[in-house]
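Hi F.,

I've been meaning to write this up properly since the lab meeting, where we talked about keeping a consistent format for the predictions we share between groups. The idea is simple: the sequence comes first, exactly as it goes in, then the structure tokens exactly as they come out, then a line or two of notes. No screenshots and no reformatting. I'm using this chain as the first example so we have something concrete to point to.
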Amino acid sequence: MSTTTTTLLDRYEEAKQQHPKMRIRDIAKHLGVSEADLVATGVGKHVTLLEGDWEELLKEVSAMGKVMALTRNNDCVHERKGVYNNVSFENHVGLVLDPDIDLRLFMMHWKFGFAVKENDRLSLQFFDKSGDAVHKIYMIEASNLDAYNKIVEKYKAADQVTEIVTEAYGVPPAEKPDAEIDAEGLREEWKNMTDTHQFFGITRKYGVSRLQALRLAPEGFVQQVDNSKVRQMLEISAGKKVPIMIFVGSRGCIQIHTGEIEKLLETGPWFNILDPELNLHLRTSAIDKTYIVKKPSEAGIVTALEVFDKDGNLIVQFFGKRKPGIPELESWREVVEAVAN
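Output, unedited:
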């Protein structure tokens, strides 16, 4: 979709005046355009259009030192401070493996990139072909400004256009009726998993959505719980200092936090973790279904709390802190048991 920038810029400025607290993502929805369309209206002023190999760019971000990584979907925002260490790619799937910045990157969905200055706050922002944000990297006080400027200069697009052309993703196929699924085969493969990552392959093999797989799961492996249990789980984990893992994904990135959480705060429809190195904002009003999900691994059962919206999209996943090959924490199992009852 192409939008006349002058008209869009006027509409954007008007919307900001009318809704001064509204985030750019929500203004874009309000105006019927993409977030990337709105960011592009600032090119030549406070925005620089970037181009080039995003994989190579990401390998250079470690020079910026400590930054804040942000990945979000419609209903959950994951902000984590740290350094982009150990960046690697294979067939356009990438990893950032650091105790603080822990990412899974799906570069086939990274289309547009911008360097943005908002109220003296500098960032690198990346979007998919539809103009939805996939990942953002914000400078903080501890960051290396020279390194940021070098990256912006190196990847600055030759043509600083204020108008981009986005392309909508196709509508995902409808679920097949449960009766058409080989449910017994799915259940057997579920019970015989040796690694939780095999779950995605099982859903593809049997042609089921994630939610449909949960419906068809073997007995004892999935339990639906009240949506309020998400908050209860966070409160128990914080109170008992149980280290947890939090997975939040966009189309192009999954961002993971591992560690204890402390400060919890509810503000309107959002339930927040507000810790020095981690901020998480979960729109609890958007939660439609919550499940306790168990998957076998070589180290025993791995238990997650999985949270979905009304369209069946995964909003956020929670696990106990764990490493491959090591059994999950007994303290996490106690947390899950508390919210299961």
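Notes:
Residues 9 and 247 are 35 Å apart (CA to CA).
The chain has two domains: 5-86+110-154, 178-340.

If this format works for you, I'll send the rest the same way.

G.
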